[in-house]
Sequence to fold (140 residues):
Amino acid sequence: MHFIKSKNIGLLLTLFLFLGLVSTAFRAETRIKNDAEQVTMPIDTAKTDQETGLVTDPNLYMVKAQCTSCHSSKLIIANRFTRDGWKQNIRWMQANHNLWDLGETEKQVLDYLEKHYAPTATAARRKPLNDIKWYKLEEQ
Fold:
């Protein structure tokens, strides 16, 4: 049986450690990219801002100024609310997290959120089957 010399063991351990770190970093980078792709998929094929991932729109810069100064744009992307739902969230942030009064810009922010991040109808189940002809299974 062939034995590995002790100085070669140190070299092998260093190599394995390095490869482990590289593969972990690669997996983390891939996961982050996949998460970002999954989050932005429901946004249709509209152009998105590279910095935030939000849909490009004339009101985007107001949303970036008012919303992403406190939290990540991913919080917006991950949620879907009606205009009233977004307004209630703004009021909640004002009451609980010291969000300032948006003043006249609130309309622009709500217009943007309602246009691009409103609830979407999704089909979670197939349509019910109609006109089914049932038959009796025979035991053998």
Q: What stands out?
A: The chain is about 50% helix and 0% strand.
